[in-house]
Write a structure and sequence with these properties.
Blueprint (H helix, E strand, L loop, with lengths): L6 H7 L11 E6 L2 E7 L21 H13 L7 E12 L8 E12 L2 E10 L2 E13 L7
Antiparallel strand pairs: 1-2, 2-4, 3-6, 4-5, 5-6
């Protein structure tokens, strides 16, 4: 198993911690493509109040989009830091609820001048959840702790 494929390995690659790390495992990683997953549980902090009973708990679209951006960030060289710089053509197709296993697929479209443009899709059991073109901006030596 690759060191970045499990949760502990991911914490080394992505500069985020709980509750902001929205990728649990890398399923596949190759040049220009990443497939990752998130097991959505009822304990996620964003479910508290989104929505109140009698309405069902739904994962906010912004959190799905953040998970998609984090997956796209795994396309960058290790040790780098990138921030979300833009989102194009974001579409949401179905809600995500506790118990769903969310699969993210990111494919690099272009990388130049410190910007990565990626096509990202989210699915649950093969059913489309969301899709977007995401732009990430790489930051150089910003706030790295020794």
């Amino acid at each position: 198993m690759r060191p970045d494929s499990d949760f502990e390995g991911l914490k080394q690659l992505l500069p985020l911690g709980y509750p902001y790390l929205l990728v649990d495992r890398v399923l596949q990683r190759s040049e220009g493509e990443v497939v990752a997953m998130k097991c959505v549980t009822a304990n996620e902090p964003y479910f508290q109040g989104h929505f109140r009973p009698p309405y069902p708990s739904l994962m906010p679209g912004t959190m799905i989009l953040e998970g998609m951006a984090q997956t796209a960030g795994l396309l960058l060289p290790e040790g780098g830091l990138a921030v979300l710089a833009g989102v194009e053509r974001a579409r949401f197709h179905r809600p995500v609820v506790p118990g769903d296993r969310l699969t993210y697929r990111a494919r690099a479209l272009r990388r130049r001048l410190g910007l990565l443009k990626a096509e990202v899709r989210a699915q649950v059991e093969g059913e489309p959840v969301a899709e977007a073109t995401i732009l990430l901006m790489e930051l150089e030596d910003v706030g790295k702790a020794d």
